[in-house]
Design a protein that fits this description.
By secondary structure, this protein is an alpha+beta fold. Helices cover about 30% and strands about 20% of the residues. It has one domain: HIT-like (HIT family, subunit A), CATH 3.30.428.10. It contains 2 helices and 5 strands.
Length: about 120
């Protein structure tokens, strides 16, 4: 996990497009964005904004990609928002995005710690 508050949690994707690829999910179960109560849209997307800022700043990315699948291509039937750090010429084009697994657990922990500390700095 890289972030948690009363509304949502964020964690690293276990099959990342690039290192630092995170998923943000609401704590309560909602299958799609259509099912999300209106009162949760602002707090959830404030966290999306925070996470996008953290992956860009903490990982020195040039930008980020933020996406939601609704049912089609949704491998888990729970609303989740992808936040993916982007760099020019990172190989992510069109609809073919190869996955880039982490080398080992230490590589995962390094990214988690970096994102956690960046989020803490952004929140202070």
């Amino acid at each position: 996990m890289v972030f948690e508050d009363e509304v949502s949690v964020a964690f690293l994707d276990y099959r990342p497009l690039v290192h630092g690829h995170c998923l943000l999910i609401p704590k309560d179960h909602y299958e799609t964005i259509v099912d999300l109560p209106t009162k949760l849209i602002a707090p959830l997307f404030n966290n999306v904004q925070l996470l996008a800022h953290a992956v860009e700043k903490g990982l020195m990315a040039e930008g980020s990609f933020v996406a939601i699948n609704n049912r089609v291509s949704q491998s888990v039937p729970h609303l989740h928002i992808h936040v993916v750090p982007r760099r020019r010429k990172d190989g992510l084009r069109g609809l073919f995005w190869p996955r880039h697994p982490y080398k080992d657990k230490d590589a995962i922990v390094k990214i988690q710690d970096l994102l956690r500390s960046t989020i803490a700095k952004l929140q202070s």
